[in-house]
């Protein structure tokens, strides 16, 4: 059984992960420059897979990409 300090750290980590929002940071061109672990859990892509790529390719359904591109 773990110590009370280990339990407190585990509970704190769980609380942080629970309230941590899914964050995708984009530059002015729409390129992903930051990606949180919560975003990875939500969308399924790791930071290594998305940083440096266009957010439109990752977050817009294939059928809607042409429409989204026209809105720029």
Rough shape? elongated
N→C terminal distance: 56 Å
Tell me the major beta sheet. Answer: 2 strands, antiparallel
Total helices: the number is: 5
Strand content: 5-15%
Instruction: Please give the number of β-strands.
Output: 2
Residue share in helix: 40-55%
Cross-sheet strand order for the largest sheet? 1-2
Going by helix content, strand content and strand pairing, the class is mainly alpha
How does this structure look, described?
With 72 residues, this protein is mostly helical. The protein is 53% helix and 10% strand. It is built from 5 helices and 2 strands. The chain has a two-stranded antiparallel sheet with strand order 1-2. β1 and β2 form a beta hairpin. It is elongated and about 55 Å long. The model has no long low-confidence stretch (mean pLDDT 79).
């Amino acid at each position: 059984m773990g110590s009370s300090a280990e339990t407190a750290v585990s509970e704190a980590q769980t609380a942080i992960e629970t309230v941590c929002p899914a964050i995708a940071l984009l530059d002015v061109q729409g390129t992903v420059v930051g990606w949180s672990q919560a975003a990875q859990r939500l969308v399924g892509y790791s930071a290594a897979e998305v940083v440096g790529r266009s957010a439109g390719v990752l977050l817009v359904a294939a059928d809607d990409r042409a429409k989204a591109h026209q809105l720029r």
